[in-house]
Write a structure and sequence with these properties.
alpha+beta, Beta Polymerase, domain 2, Methane Monooxygenase Hydroxylase, Chain G, domain 1, 3 domains, 10 helices, 7 strands
Length: 359
């Protein structure tokens, strides 16, 4: 099966550049801006909005959620940084793929980055950056499509807890949706492990070792994403931040429990994947032993038969001496030799059966 390309360890094209330099990553898609601005009684939604309008929207509505899909337009990202007063280093981390999930607290805003599963392919993920400030939440993702449709639906339906909540609560809702998106991915890997285990134990063709290794690698990647994400959410819980009130922290604690649960599941399934790999090797070794046992029985049976045939294949002249192959002149010599071979083979088969070789 084709192996997916792993994430790069670092960006070689950004090596030794001044801090805060914004360079679009390789294969970045065109940037697309969308907004959700809302209050308890009003909602403004736009799939495309000019950057100049964001300041007015921010003044008009209590909470503005700006989502940027695509990292190609670094000038747009720089403009967003100027409008919302974002730190240049945080903007650099936004376009530097990949980043370890982390939380950086600045003077008047927070920067959070994490890995978001791609819904179309459970083995893929993209970087998600979240900027949290007074009256705004800015999310930046690599590609179009995300796991936040449920949040958008709740905003459109006028759910009071979200519509009356602060930007901290919106940031919690985004993190909670992100964590919940990992569970279908983990479930798909669990189903694959069950199917592979059944294939190994049944008469179906065994899976290739590369297929198992690729699955285990995917689980290791999930562990690498969830472990720092769990630490990130725990840090938000322990910290004293004005944008995270006590009511939001109560919900954030539930999000932390979900993340810990997802991490524990990945750990257990990673062990299961190792066990399935060992099971396949054991089953293959057992099948090889069965084949070798059959071949050994056959070879052992033919050892005495080859000996008898070799003895009677010697060309000693019986006319020169009575001791030279007297059976050659006997009319029953050939049936005698065949009978001797059959008796030797039967005796060995009986011996093997008593020893339990055929069980």
């Amino acid at each position: 099966m084709p192996r997916r390309r792993r994430l790069p360890i670092y960006r070689a094209d950004a090596h030794a550049l001044p801090p805060g330099t914004l360079m679009p990553p390789k294969d970045a898609i065109p940037s697309k801006l969308s907004v959700f601005c809302y209050g308890p009684e009003e909602l403004f939604e736009a799939e495309s909005v000019a950057v100049a309008e964001l300041s007015k929207l921010r003044e008009q509505y209590p909470v503005c959620w700006i989502n940027l899909a695509g990292l190609q337009d670094v000038e747009l990202i720089a403009q967003l940084g100027e409008i919302f007063g974002l730190h240049r280093l945080a903007l650099e981390d936004t376009v530097s793929i990949p980043q370890r999930p982390k939380h950086d607290a600045y003077t008047d805003h927070h920067y959070i980055t994490a890995r978001m599963p791609v819904l179309s392919d459970a083995k893929l993920s993209e970087q998600l950056s979240i900027f949290l400030g007074d009256g705004f939440v800015l999310t930046v993702q690599e590609f179009e499509g995300d796991v936040f449709d449920g949040i958008r639906k709740r905003l459109r339906d006028g759910r009071p807890r979200l519509r009356t909540g602060t930007t901290g609560y919106l940031a919690y809702a985004i993190l909670d949706a992100l964590v919940d998106a990992y569970f279908p991915v983990i479930e798909s890997f669990a189903v694959q492990l069950d199917e592979l285990e059944l294939r190994i134990l049944s008469d179906a063709p065994d899976p290739k070792i590369g297929e198992l290794h690729d699955l285990k690698r995917s689980l290791i990647s999930l562990r690498r994403y969830l472990d720092p994400l769990r630490e990130l959410i725990g840090g938000l819980l322990r910290g004293e931040y004005d944008l995270m009130d006590e009511q939001t922290k109560v919900h954030l604690r539930d999000c932390y429990d979900h993340c810990k649960h997802a991490y524990d599941l990945v750990e257990s399934y990673r062990d299961v994947a190792s066990g399935v790999m060992d099971l396949q090797l054991s089953v293959q070794g057992q099948r090889m032993n069965e084949v070798m046992k059959v071949l050994t029985v056959i070879a052992t049976l033919f050892i005495p038969l080859s000996f008898i045939a070799g003895v009677y294949g010697m060309n000693f002249d019986a006319s020169r001496s009575g001791w030279n192959m007297p059976e050659l002149g006997w009319s029953f010599g050939y049936p005698y030799a065949l009978g001797l071979m059959a008796a030797a083979a039967g005796a060995m088969l009986l011996y093997f059966r008593r020893k339990g070789w055929f069980r």
